[in-house]
Design goal:
448 residues; alpha+beta; 2 domains; five-stranded antiparallel sheet; 14 helices
């Protein structure tokens, strides 16, 4: 990534959601100041397009946000999905001479945006305001409309790919989830949902922070799986391999990111990460996850995708890091966890008499190691995968052969969980489960 050669003015971006409310449930305000400098180098390696003037719509939105005036939540949603239109492979252009010289203009942008807006409206119809149940409902509508099932394709990075080809990957799947939830809820309702966007290495997913006995817990929705696909991660304080971002602030970053210099993007990114961490009690050292061994910040996630610039893939977020490790082409999606199971888990954790602790889930049935090793892989994953300490454990789903059995691997103390974690071989994968979740009887020290 080349260094931007010329920056004439500095920028300061301080972002947080304001607690002030307009009487109109669509209108929201932000405690945010965005000072952009459009007079920068045209260096093609720049991620942002800071050398371009803001569109009238973006300029108006920026001015209102900076002056702390209410802005339309729906209009922000439209600007967000418009980014997916502008960066899609379906845009057509032609050369136009306006008398002062030739320029490239788009010929179908308006129609593409209108069609995508209608698609989001249709997908959102009949969707529950219970967040965990939303994904399976809108995906069924999308599949019924298309007459075929959604499939995973790593190159389907825009919402237009979902609309026109019934294909998605983690970035476009997350965008669809965000667009639908922002349509289902008013601006005021949205702020009460505590929705987030969760980045891990080479991956992104939407999610929700849930308060349980006064502590925040993270639930993720895996859009690359079918069904509700709700997965429980754990307490916010134990999130050490994720970058968790307030969903509303993420959308703002997506709307303005291409109008910023690299320096401005980094400032905004750091501010949003810190504010989200402060709100939910996330680890303070999470910024280290965004830094490579060479010390440079990772603003991109590689792996291809629809884009108008090879230097700036559209699925390059301010918060993404690492590489996607998925094959090319269409891939079937596996079934994810149910919303009902997640809701039941929350109810159980909210009942002190169950013996479950907010610090660590404790399964009531007491078992021996022999009991666990006698389980089939499928039974083991059904029972324990939601509580795995590693991302592979809670997101990995497949059908196992009847002969697949659990293999002991190791037992280590995990400082983040303040507990011992048992590692098991499950097929070709290694899954770590906290000791207290297993509810083991007898001397665990003998397990190595």
């Amino acid at each position: 990534m080349s260094k931007i050669l010329t920056v004439l003015f500095a920028s300061l971006l301080i972002v947080s959601c304001s607690k002030k409310k307009s009487s109109d449930p669509d209108m929201v305000t932000y405690d945010v100041t965005i000072e952009t400098n459009n007079m920068v180098s045209n260096d093609s390696s720049s991620t942002g397009s800071g050398s371009q003037k803001l569109s009238p719509e973006l300029q108006e939105m920026k001015d209102k946000i900076n002056s702390k005036q209410p802005v339309s939540f729906k209009k922000l949603t439209n600007l967000y999905i418009d980014e997916h239109v502008a960066s899609s492979k379906y845009i057509k252009t032609e050369m136009k001479d306006d008398g002062e010289g030739k320029s490239v203009v788009t010929t179908n942008h308006g129609q593409l945006l209108s069609d995508l807006s209608s698609f989001i409206t249709v997908a959102s119809a009949g969707v529950s305001k219970q967040y965990f149940s939303q994904k399976s409902i809108y995906e069924k509508t999308v599949e019924t409309r298309a007459g075929k099932q959604l499939v995973y394709n790593r190159d389907a990075v825009t919402l237009k790919d979902v609309e026109l080809e019934t294909k998605l990957q983690c970035f476009s799947g997350t965008a669809l989830n965000l667009a639908v939830s922002r349509t289902v809820y008013t601006g005021h309702e949205y702020r009460g949902q505590n929705l987030v966007v969760v980045f891990s290495r080479g991956h992104v997913s939407p999610g929700q922070m849930v308060s349980i006995q006064g502590k925040w817990h993270l639930f993720e929705v895996e859009t690359t799986q079918s069904g509700d696909a709700v997965n429980y991660y754990g307490m916010a304080s134990s999130v050490y391999d994720r970058v968790v971002i307030d969903a509303e602030l993420f959308v703002l970053s997506e709307i303005f990111k291409n109008e910023m210099t690299i320096e401005q993007q980094v400032t905004l990114r750091d501010s949003i990460i810190q504010k989200t961490a402060d709100k939910y009690g996330l680890p303070k050292d999470i910024l280290s996850k965004m830094t490579s061994s060479s010390g440079s910040t990772g603003l991109r996630v590689s792996g291809g995708g629809s884009s108008n610039s090879e230097n700036d893939p559209f699925n390059s977020s301010l918060f993404s890091f690492g590489d996607m490790q998925t094959p090319a082409g269409d891939q079937p999606r596996t079934q994810g966890g149910s919303a009902q199971d997640a809701i039941q888990l929350i109810n159980d954790l909210n009942k002190p008499q169950t013996g479950m602790s907010v610090q660590m889930i404790e399964e009531k049935p007491v078992v021996t190691m022999d009991d666990i090793l006698a389980m089939s892989c499928e039974d083991f994953m059904d029972r324990y995968s939601a509580y795995a300490v590693n991302s592979e454990g809670y997101s990995y789903r497949r059908e196992y052969s009847p002969n697949c059995r659990i293999k002991p691997y190791a037992r280590h103390y995990d400082a983040h969980y303040e507990a011992y974690v048992y590692w098991f071989g499950v097929g070709n994968h290694e899954i770590g489960i906290p000791e207290r979740v297993l509810g083991l009887s007898g001397d665990g020290e003998s397990y190595h």
